[in-house]
Write a structure and sequence with these properties.
single chain, mainly beta, Jelly Rolls, 8-stranded antiparallel sheet, globular
């Protein structure tokens, strides 16, 4: 069952409007959470980052606005708006914002 903070069903939504930038912060909003995974919208202010970590599941980052610096297993990737990148399960990755950007992260849980 949907959580009230999730995006509404059967309605078109402009994802860029669902999370606002905040000075000096990374804002996240879970748009959908199910047993099979999550879809989360992130808004990174310039200079903010998520430090290197691993996750037990594959995740796809889709940059919607701006440009992200995503490092996967030591390989830095510049990801412009419109591009996507797979962050494979169990590989260290980090996300940084040289400039403000928004991204949609889809995490796929697998057994």
């Amino acid at each position: 069952m949907a959580n009230p903070s999730e995006m509404p069903g059967a309605t078109t939504v402009a994802p860029l409007t669902l999370a606002a930038y905040q000075d000096g912060a990374v804002v996240s909003r879970i748009l959908l959470r199910r047993g099979g995974g999550t879809v989360t919208l992130f808004a990174f202010d310039e200079g903010q980052s998520l430090s290197e970590h691993t996750a037990p599941f594959d995740a796809v980052a889709h940059v919607l606005e701006g440009e992200a610096l995503i490092t996967i297993a030591g390989v830095p990737l510049t990801v412009p708006a419109g591009d996507i990148v797979l962050m494979p399960a169990n590989q260290p990755h980090a996300v940084a914002a040289p400039k403000r950007f928004k991204m949609l992260l889809t995490m796929i849980r697998s057994i």
